[in-house]
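Work Package 3 (structural annotation) set out to generate three-dimensional models for the target panel prioritized at the project kickoff. During this period the team completed the workflow that converts sequence records into discrete structure tokens, so that structures can be stored uniformly alongside our sequence database. As a representative example, we reproduce one entry of 307 residues exactly as it appears in the project archive.
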Amino acid sequence: MGETLIPRLIVHGGAGDWTGFDEDTVLRGVHDAAEAGAAILRAGGSALDAVEAATRILEDHPLFDAGYGSYMNEWGEVEMDAIIADGEHTRFGAVAGVRRVRHAITLARGVLERTDHCFFVGEGADHLATKLGMPIIANVELVSDGELADFRQRHNPDSKPSAHGTGTVGACAYDATGRVAAATSTGGTHDKPKGRVGDSPLFGSGGYADPAGAASATGVGENIMRYFLCKRAVDACGVGLDAATAARSAVTYLNAQIPDPEAGLILISADGRVGAAHTTQAMPIAWLTADGQIHTAMRCTADMQFE
């Protein structure tokens, strides 16, 4: 029987400025997500189960730009993207432009485990959800009261847009067998053109996992996808960098290529260590330490300890 390892997990609630939000409420949100994933890991569950559970909590929380609470596009609709990645086999399932399910991350897992394919989009993704027996909902059920009010304000020429800064959400986990997994879910950017897809569902960009580690990115997708941010970070772990250093290295590289790229990253390596970095004013995170405790932070610093 193989050695039982100490599970680890880290989640993020999106890189941005987070101006005007109550930070305690935001941090409770990522804490609850981490606790959902940690409970699965403590019970001996898989990394895939843990990242899906953590991400579903964030998809249900109206403060985060995923699931219920997603930004509306220019047509006043919600279109969601998500990816879930299995590091043991370097496999993934992804969806984009999803409009009729509550949990895009669960549909992405359905793609991974219940189809012979990797990526479904638009009406085809929603149709797949029906075939997989997932509940189908009206698009309006994904619009939170807060986002509806903000959408109306953004489209009122006499109103000053409200300050925002929320972004994509995600999770990375390492289970007791040493397997790693990552999940990323988003509603995209506010008022995005219909059909626009960012980095989130793209393997290697918005989410990635292989035997060296797992990563989830957040921020401006048009910047992140150009440099395969998640794969860059995991590759750094593969050549010997610890997770915290690898996360900072990947984000620093992106920042050198694109001034103010508005990006963030969480990472877990094959040895179970975690790291996070961002170029934005804030990126709420929560992580499970080796002693089984969950810690939270609104901002990451270069000297932050994740042990």
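The mean pLDDT is 95.
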